[in-house]
């Protein structure tokens, strides 16, 4: 089966519009923070010690992403997306970020806690294999000057003798498969500065912090940062910008500036149409999905499946598409606790029953997830797209026949996809452009 990357490479269209004049930069930035907390006060002291002096990265087993992994990843992505989309608000989720953050955390889980996390995150893939798949997949994601994607991971834990003992195997596994650095720190103001500086450095300054303060019960943070920065393959110039109207999910009409173009990959299923707009060199793409008239965005999302999403993307038709994409910008924030419980991992949130014994132990009581907070931001305009996400996991003790037309002038779904697999790195909804 041809990949989207193959379709983009082979695409040859006789477009009537003039060629655009300059490239469009699209930086997409993602941060994941996993926090483990305990029930004592922080004692202020100084900076952070690098613990990787004693933890050397070993050669990790790799599993080349295959149809099993793609099906699992897509199922997780769409199930999480479907669970979080509700009402008339815009949504933006980074499945890759959430999956990596929770998989790193799962490396410290055991018993029923691990079983539930494996079932949700891997959909039948054991955690050891999921680690190997994610190691290979993240290492293999294209990284080019004009389509740049980089991933960094770090683990920070409190320097407090007798409070938390961290298992070396936990650090070793996350070093091997996720290249995670590890730091021991006093969790004072200096630590706060260290963590936020690390985030700024590893997001090219697009996100300058993830913590306003360190929770007095916090004993560990796991942080994942992803930087995505790509140029459009076919860019917009001034003549491609035109004003228009967007009918929001609430029924109001909003003034918007549309970015108009002719694209070469058309999407269609029984409930929607859409298009794919590639980034430079055809390594990544922006996929837009517009539910049919008479089908609400919520109805469409409610019917989505991982298999259906992949079939839609991989079944893209090579034909001329007259496309209009509105400028939009919004932020999104949600606590994922209830969603993750409903999706099948409630034990990890139980102060009595959670088992994170492979992570370590605390003298104060049992470790459990207290909060999984996901924050995202995206801005799309003629100059580019910027997107970022933060997820905090807190653990506590106790040939064309016709021209297709897709005008995104009402609520729609979009995704930033890896063209080699068709898998979403970001996926979101636009219910309003204001």
Automatic annotation (TrEMBL):
GO terms for molecular function: peptidase activity; serine-type endopeptidase inhibitor activity. SUPFAM superfamilies: Serpins. It holds the Pfam family Serpin. GO terms for biological process: proteolysis. Residues 78-433 form the Serpin domain. The keyword Protein biosynthesis does not apply. It comes from the Bacteria. SMART domains: SERPIN. Coiled coil: none annotated. Keywords: Hydrolase, Protease. GO terms for cellular component: extracellular space. Belongs to the serpin family. This is Serine protease. It comes from Youngiibacter fragilis 232.1.
